Amino acid sequence: MRNLPAPMSPDHWLAHMFSAKSAVSGGVLRRSVRDVERYVGRAAFLAEMQRRGYSVIENAGQFVVFCNREPLRRLL
Q1: Integer angstrom CA distances of residue 53 from 46, 73, 75
Q2: Contact (CB, 8 A) for 49 and 14
Q3: What is the DSSP string of 42-72?
């Protein structure tokens, strides 16, 4: 039998996500919807983004998270 790594808790997964250099510097993160739903759950993920005041968009199976509180402007 293969030795599989222990599953990551939702809190640990989010902490790992927000420790990324881009997140720390107020940049943009991209995560697959499938991974978010598997590790954290959509509702919990979106609640955490709202708590932090971050904007999130979904497109083509990806969440794009803007790790700042700046307004978004759709140009096209």
Answers
A1: 10, 16, 22
A2: no
A3: HHHHHHHHHHHT-EEEEETTEEEEE-S-PPP
Which residue type does 66 have? F
Instruction: Specify the 3-state DSSP secondary structure of 34.
Output: helix
Q: Which residues, at least 6 apart from 74, have a Cβ–Cβ distance to it below 8 Å?
A: none
User: Residue 4 pLDDT > 70, yes or no?
Assistant: no
Distance between CA atoms of 47 and 40, rounded to whole angstroms? 11
Distance CA 23, CA 15 (A): 11
User: For 27-69, what is each residue's pLDDT tens digit?
Assistant: 999 999 999 999 999 999 999 999 999 999 999 999 999 999 9
